[in-house]
Design a protein that fits this description.
Spore_YabP, YabP_sf, mainly beta, 5% helix, 56% strand, six-stranded antiparallel sheet, Sporulation protein YabP, Immunoglobulin-like
Length: 93
């Protein structure tokens, strides 16, 4: 049986570096007061800062809101579309 993939869009809304909302979450990998690490529709997302707290988490709908001081947002191992890969790399597969 095939696994159905969700078509939830990944969206990141930052509110004055004091919190925000993320949609398109597949999994919460880890979280503490200094970092929240998520697996999203676009790959892993690291949110670093201080006094970070999850205000709301709904994994069924893939949504989370958080608050705290945000110092950085990084996508780690961002997934690529096949179109973005070099032509030669696709040809030699």
């Amino acid at each position: 049986m095939e696994e159905k993939r969700s078509t939830v869009l990944h969206r990141l809304i930052l509110e004055r570096q004091k919190g925000g909302t993320v949609t398109g979450i597949r999994e919460v990998i880890s979280f503490d007061e200094k970092e929240i690490l998520l697996y999203t529709e676009e790959g892993k997302l690291s949110i670093k800062g201080g006094e970070l707290h999850m205000k709301q988490l709904d994994l069924k709908n893939g949504e989370m809101s958080f608050e705290g001081r945000i110092d950085s947002l990084n996508y780690l191992g961002r997934k690529k579309d096949r179109k973005e890969e070099p032509f030669l790399k696709r040809l030699l597969r």
